[in-house]
Design brief:
The protein is an alpha/beta fold and 583 residues long. The chain is built from 21 helices and ten strands. The chain folds into three domains: 280 residues, no CATH class; 51 residues, no CATH class; 101 residues, no CATH class. Helices cover 48% and strands 9% of the residues. The protein has a five-stranded mixed sheet with strand order 1-5-4-6-7. Strands 8-9-10 form a three-stranded antiparallel sheet. Strands 2-3 form a two-stranded antiparallel sheet. A hairpin with a 5-residue loop joins strand 2 and strand 3. Helix 1 runs antiparallel to helix 4, helix 11 packs antiparallel against helix 13 and helix 18 packs antiparallel against helix 20. It is flat and about 125 Å long.
């Protein structure tokens, strides 16, 4: 069945809050896996209303049981999905309770920015209300949250083998996505996925909001003590120490990080993002302090001091904060102490001097012989390549050996001759075609028409089966009633046991085997009976998969139109499947 691309699986922020509330208030006791103080797994029980349920628990007890079994994401079946304009980066271990608290802060902040609402006005969302009934529908805020927006029954297939083409990267590169919200930055620093998402957002030019249960860091809503704690974590942070729950995911991220310049560059970029957020948060405190100073300046207009009678405090600050010279010739820097007396309504301004460090010549740095032999350039195989794999896969088919006909004065072959070199290149190109992906492949019209026709026929067959089963059940009911009446009549007439041989022959005729290779109409193999009358859910799924694999192989040959590409390499089967069927 068709699924929307990930960029269109954005969940209205009101629906997202309702989902988190559903996780918290879901009835019953959830048997969940957690870690003890030694880091070993243990089973714990989380009851209805527990503030400890997280996204691992929600996926296992809610999404996998009620949504993923239908081969779809939660966003597709339970929300009014659409283009995602806010990407939420989060940690699965974080509780739904904290995530919901942070989301409420995020929603209020977004409305404040969107409608210029004062910070004192709170926007309330009625419990259980849908997005269409709330103010959220007016602003059209849709979030992309991987737990909801990925199809958890086939998450490995959707993720693929290249992080740069994963759902996360697709949404972050989408023009509709305007910003990234990082929930629980303290925990996020420990996770590889979150670290990759930060840098991908920065490379895509998307601003990153740090969101906590207290509020938005950049909006000045977080306490200074929390900022101090965050700064300590950032200073000691090293991206190489971050972890990932899946080894396969860790390998994918490691490859992507290598293409982005390595972990050292990633660490620097992450520190820069956090530093900018902390600086912006600090600017709110500085603005408040400046406002108080300006208020003191204006209230001191009647000061009777001869020199400060009409001179603002800001000018006193500027004039007294300069550098002066002491009698000893050492440089000193002036500092100002400003006190306001509510009793005398006067400002007391004092200058304090403290010695500045004497300027000295920088020390001469010399390298030892051992240090001179050290190299810090990353090897090409470990760091950034001349060409990314994507560009190489799009271009290698046009590689050629230089020829004099192209205008060269001479072409010299120092390694092998011209014929051997051309054969070597051709062998290399053929091997690349056998193992690489066609990055710019677009499903053609033949595939689109064939798929459309198949989906229509597939639905008709399922409808035919339902109709036949309903009519067959009715016929069986009528036949049973008729048989019962005849038996009663025969019993009354003393004809029990007659026609037994005729009945056996009739049953044998009904139970006859059908040679499927001679069937001309699968919807009617006789007496209106369809060939697929006994199909179960797994039979329909296998039929669908068989069609998809065959059609994808045939469409690939037509769309590539290259006789040297004989088929789809097994290693890239999942990637091409997602390319054609978007799932």
């Amino acid at each position: 069945s068709w699924s929307p691309p990930h960029t269109l699986r954005g969940v209205p922020i009101g629906d997202f809050e309702n989902f988190l509330a559903e996780v918290i208030e879901a009835p019953g006791v959830w048997e969940c896996t957690a870690e003890n103080h030694l880091g070993k797994p243990m089973m714990v029980r989380k009851r209805q209303g527990s503030s400890k349920r997280n996204m691992y628990d929600a996926c296992e007890h809610l999404i996998m049981r009620e949504v993923a079994c239908l081969d779809a994401s939660y966003a597709e079946l339970r929300t009014n999905y659409g283009p995602a304009n806010i990407f939420i980066s989060h940690v699965w271990k974080e509780t739904a309770y904290n995530t919901r608290s942070a989301t409420v802060k995020l929603r209020e902040y977004l409305f404040t920015k969107r409608f210029n609402i004062g910070h004192t006005r709170r926007i309330q969302l009625a419990p259980g209300s849908s997005s269409s009934e709330s103010l959220d529908a007016l602003a059209d805020f849709r979030v992309w949250f991987c737990t909801l927006c990925n199809n958890q029954s086939r998450v490995k297939e959707e993720l693929g083998n290249d992080v740069q083409h994963s759902p996360f990267a697709q949404v972050l590169r989408s023009p509709a996505c305007r910003q990234v919200a990082l929930v629980s930055p303290f925990m996020a620093l420990e996770r590889k996925w979150c670290n990759y998402e930060f840098c991908a957002a920065k490379h895509s030019g998307k601003p990153v909001l740090m969101v906590t249960t207290e509020g938005i860091v950049q909006a000045g809503q977080v306490a200074p003590k929390t900022l101090d704690k965050l700064s300590k974590r950032v200073v000691a942070f090293n991206c190489e120490h971050s972890t990932c729950a899946s080894r396969d995911d860790a390998k994918l991220i490691n490859r992507a990080v290598a293409q982005m310049g390595g972990y050292k560059a990633l660490t620097g970029e992450l520190k820069e993002i956090f530093q900018d957020a902390i600086k912006e948060a600090h600017s709110w405190a500085k603005t408040a302090l400046d406002r108080i100073h300006d208020d003191h300046d204006s209230s001191n207009g009647d000061c009777e001091s001869c020199e400060c009678q009409e001179r603002p405090v800001s000018q006193w600050r500027e004039s007294l904060s300069g550098t002066t010279s002491s009698s000893a010739g050492n440089k000193t820097r002036g500092h100002i102490s400003v006190k306001f007396s509510s009793e005398s309504s006067q400002l007391e301004i004092q200058e304090e001097e403290e010695e500045a460090e004497e300027e000295t010549e920088p020390p001469t740095v010399e390298l030892t012989e051992e240090e001179k032999k050290m190299w810090f350039r990353t090897a090409a195989g470990q760091g950034c390549k001349d060409l990314t794999d994507t560009v190489l896969n799009q271009s290698f088919g046009s590689f050629s050996i230089p020829d004099e006909a192209e205008g060269f004065d001479a072409v010299e072959f120092e390694w092998q001759g011209a014929a051997e070199s051309r054969e070597y290149l051709r062998t290399w190109v053929l091997e690349k075609k056998r193992t690489s992906r066609v990055e710019d492949l677009v499903p053609g019209q033949w595939f689109q028409d064939t798929l459309k026709e198949w989906l229509k026929m597939f639905a008709e067959w399922q409808t035919k089966q339902k109709v036949f089963k309903a009519s067959a059940a009715q016929k069986e009911k009528e036949a049973a009633a008729k048989k019962k009446a005849e038996e009663a009549k025969k019993k009354a007439e003393g004809k029990e046991g007659e026609d037994k041989e005729a009945e056996e022959e009739e049953e044998a005729e009904v139970a006859r085997d059908i040679d499927i290779f001679t069937v001309e109409n699968v919807c009617d193999v006789g007496n209106g009976e369809p060939l697929f009358k006994d199909f179960g859910m797994e039979d329909w799924a296998l039929l669908q998969l068989r069609f998809e694999l065959y059609t994808m192989q045939q469409a690939f040959k037509k769309d590539v139109d290259d006789p040297e590409r004989l088929g789809i390499p097994e290693i890239h089967l999942a990637w091409y499947y997602n390319k054609y069927f978007r799932k």
